[in-house]
Amino acid sequence: MFFGLSIPNQSVNYFKTFVFNYIAFGWKGVVKLPVLIYGNTKLYSIGKIVINCELKKGLLSIGQYDCKSQGITKFLNFGEIIIDGYVEIGGCSIIENSGKILFKGYNRVADGSCLFIRDKFVMGEQSRIGFHSLVMDSDDHFTIDINDKSVHRNTKPIIIGKYNWLASNTFIKKGVITPDYLIVASNALLIKDYSSLAPYSVIGGVPAKLLKSGVRRIYNIHTEYLLLDYFKAHVKEDKFFFGDEENLESLCKQHTSKF
C-alpha cells in the first residue's frame, strides 16, 4: 500500500475468527468460517448466533475498516442474533445486545455506529444504516411519576422495513417502525411508528418528518458505476434517464455479497 493510502486493521484476524466460529457453530464453523472478525475487534461475549441459510464464508463480517473508522470495534452479545443473509458490521461499531437482533440479509451497519438492544431489533432485507448512527430500543434507565409513583416499561422493539437507507448520524429510538423503501436523511431523529408512510418516502429532521416521495436508493453497484461514468463524462448534465424497458428492481437491487 502507498504511504497515506493504507487503512489499518483491514485484514481478517484469523485467531479471533476461528474462536468465534468454533464457539458459535462448532467444527463446521471452523471449516466454513461464516463469521469473519477483522482487525482491532474486541469480543466480550459471543452469545447465541443463529444462521438461517447455507453456511458460507463471510456471511457476517465484523470490524472491517474504511476511512471513516476511528477506534476499535466492540462486540458484546448476551442475547440472540439471527442472520438470514449477508451482514456487514463496519469498523469501530459497537454491538451490545441482551435481547434479539434479526438481520434479514444484505444488511450493513456502517462504521462507528452503535446498536444497543435490550428487547428486539429487526432489520429488513437490503436495508442499511449509515456511519456514526445510533440504534437504541430502550431508555436504558427508568423514570417514576412523582404523582402516582408509576413506572412505565422502558423498552419497545424497533422494526426497520426492507430496502431502507438510514443515512449517517441517524438516531433511532425505541418503538420506531419504518415502511419498506424508506430513505432517512442524515442527522435525523426517529422517535415513532412511521409505517403509515407510503413506500419510497424520504424523511428527515429532528424529529423526522416527511420530506419527499417517490425516491428509491440504488444499491446495484453496476448501476452506480454506470451513473458515475456518465456524469463524469457529461459534466454539464444534471440528470440521467433510464429507458422504459429498464427494470427498476434490477437497476436498484444489490445482487452480490459485496457492499
**How many domains would you count in the coordinates?**
2
CATH class of the largest domain: Mainly Beta
Shape: globular
Gyration radius, in Å = 20 Å
Strand and helix order: HHEEEEEEEEEEEEEEEEEEEEEHH
Give the termini distance in whole angstroms: 22 Å
The biggest sheet amounts to: 9 strands, mixed
The fold-level CATH name of the largest domain is UDP N-Acetylglucosamine Acyltransferase, domain 1
Low-confidence stretches: 1-6
CATH superfamily of the largest domain: Hexapeptide repeat proteins
Helix content: 10-25%
Strand order of the largest sheet: 1-4-7-10-13-16-18-20-21
Count of helix runs: 4
Quaternary status of these chains? single chain
Q: What's the architecture of the largest domain in CATH terms?
A: 3 Solenoid
State mean pLDDT (0 to 100 scale): 92
Number of strands: 21
Strand content: 25-35%
Provide the structure class.
alpha/beta
